[in-house]
Design goal:
The protein is of the alpha/beta class. It has a single domain (8-471), classed as Glycosidases (TIM Barrel, Alpha-Beta Barrel). It contains 16 helices and 13 strands. A hairpin with a 5-residue loop joins strand 12 (446-449) and strand 13 (455-458). The longest helix has 28 residues, at 199-226. It is globular, with a radius of gyration of 22 Å. The mean pLDDT is 98. Bound molecules: ligand GBH. Ligand GBH binds at residues 14, 17, 165-166, 169, 235, 306, 331, 349, 377, 427, 434, 443.
């Protein structure tokens, strides 16, 4: 088993989850500041006001990355730091731009390759209030294009750009379930606004157009001189049939991935939504104009893959409810024969199943003709980790096994199945603000002591990463040297 010698590995984070300093240096509010202020939305009533204090500790975070041996680091830009009100006619904030430009310079100086996510869910709040944010195609896509151009121009040394992180989450969690900002849902007990049957599909469509516009700008105005690459990051779980003998469950397994991943990836690679989605959603799913197809089709230089878990899938009979977003099926942790998908974690939706990762890498590669893949997130929480005293939390053997198994499954997919993975970023560098779960759920390879000035303590899993990748990459180098030797 081995990985290519140019393989990049490192860690990932997102602005609102780690930065804090929400009122510093001219930053404007984002929809997450607003959402966190609504009582009951965040499990522990917390917010990203302090988070890991990373805005003020960039040097410390880079030193940590270096100590752990990371070759790359994925982070996101807070749009409302660089354009506080967000829009194309609003003033820009030089302090915000300088912050991220300096951060990239410092990463490069430390020998770490930056991957920048432009949008990890924290829309400038003013845009939501002004015109309905992600729901407004004309305004939102024009403002995103403007913001993206400003970033490409301001940070020319960054060679890896991700337009959107997990548009599925923005659309479904933000506009169907209402558990993420801006909290829209049809459930009037939870929100006065929202239409779970329609808004998510509009938001998904608008994100695809905004992605396409940003990619066009990058390719026409910056790529020729900067020479970087750009893509989108999508989330999706692996699937196994609940009843392996039932063709309807087997079919539902594909449909589940289509509703999660192909919703975005099919338009990007083929130019239209999957047939299964059109069939179920009919006119509620927007259609692409010719001009939009031209923007979206072929707009990935790489596929950004976020992956965590797997489910058993049981098909449903009859007409699904209007607010269904899974594809008329159930997701389960046990199959028909009582087999369990994997052990519990602190996250209700996450159970480790490394074979699923390999399966999904293959599924994606076959459907989209073996694109270059960066795994932009992979990781786990640990049941009860927050209740442990520091010394015990640092011995995160469960997470070590997770990373070992998932990285080996990936290496097998590369070597034995011909899947083209070129990088891997563990989620996350730090314990951080886990959105609606607040700070109770920890995903970091580094323990953050929120009670003691956000002091950082690398866990066992942090130190394991370099030897893990060295063993896989070194082996590849030895094999390559062997192969290059003339036959005796
Ligand atoms: C990622 O998303 C985020 O990018 C990151 O910010 C976050 O901290 C990290 O994961 C850990 O949570 O049961 O069908 O409703 C999380 C991925 C995808 C997890 C959707 C929950 C629910 C699927 N999420 N999933 S469903």
């Amino acid at each position: 088993m081995s990985l290519p010698s140019d393989f990049l590995w490192g860690f990932a984070t997102a602005a609102y989850q780690i930065e804090g300093s929400t009122d510093v240096d001219g930053r404007g509010p984002s929809i997450w500041d607003t959402f966190c202020a609504i009582p009951g939305k965040i499990a522990d009533g917390s917010s990203g006001v302090v988070a890991c204090d990373s805005y003020k500790r960039t040097k410390e975070d880079i030193a940590l990355l270096k100590e752990l041996g990371a070759k790359c680091y994925r982070f996101s830009i807070s749009w409302s730091r660089v354009i506080p009100l967000g829009g194309r006619n609003d003033p820009i904030n030089q302090a915000g731009i300088d912050h991220y430009r300096q951060f990239v310079d410092d990463l490069l100086e430390a020998g770490i390759t930056p991957f920048i996510t432009l949008f990890h869910w924290d829309l400038p709040d003013a845009l939501d209030k002004r015109y309905g944010g992600l729901l407004n195609k004309e305004e939102f896509t024009a403002d995103f294009e403007n913001y993206a151009r400003l970033m490409f121009k301001s940070i020319p040394k960054c060679k890896h750009w991700i337009t959107f992180n997990e548009p599925w989450c923005s659309a479904i969690n933000g506009y169907n379930l209402g558990i993420f900002a801006p909290g829209h849902t049809s459930d009037r007990n939870k929100s006065p606004v929202g239409d779970s049957a329609r808004e998510p599909w509009i938001v998904g469509h608008n994100i695809l157009i905004a992605h396409g516009k940003a990619v066009k700008v990058y390719r026409e105005e910056f790529k020729p001189t900067q020479g970087g690459e750009i893509g989108i990051t999508l989330n999706g779980d692996a699937t196994y049939p609940w009843d392996p003998e039932d063709p309807a469950d087997i079919e539902a397994c594909d449909r589940k991935i289509e509703f999660a991943i192909s919703w975005f990836a099919d338009p990007i690679y083929f130019g239209d939504y999957p047939a299964s989605m059109r069939k179920q959603l009919g006119e509620r799913l927007p259609t692409f104009t010719e001009e939009e197809v031209a923007l979206v089709k072929g707009s990935n230089d790489f596929y950004g893959m976020n992956h965590y878990t797997a489910n058993y899938i049981k098909h449903r009979k009859g007409t699904p409810p209007e607010d269904d977003f899974l594809g008329n099926l159930e997701t389960l942790f046990y199959d028909k024969n009582g087999n369990c998908i994997g052990p519990e974690t602190q996250s209700f939706w996450l159970r480790p199943n490394a074979q699923g990762f390999r399966n999904l890498l293959n599924w994606l590669s076959k459907r989209y003709n073996y694109p270059k893949i960066y795994v932009t997130e992979n990781g786990t929480s640990l049941k009860g980790e927050s209740d442990l005293p520091l010394e015990q939390a640092l011995e995160d053997d469960f997470r070590c096994k997770y990373f070992h198994d998932y990285v080996h499954a990936m290496a097998k997919a590369v070597e034995e199945d011909g899947v083209n993975v070129k990088g891997y970023m563990a989620w996350s560098l730090l314990d951080n603000f886990e959105w609606a779960d607040g700070y109770v759920t920890r995903f970091g390879v580094t323990y953050v002591d929120y009670k003691d000035n956000c002091k950082r303590y690398p866990k066992k899993s942090a130190r394991q990463m370099k030897p893990l990748f060295d063993s896989l990459i070194k082996k590849a180098e030895v094999e390559a040297a062997e192969a290059a030797k003339p036959a005796p």
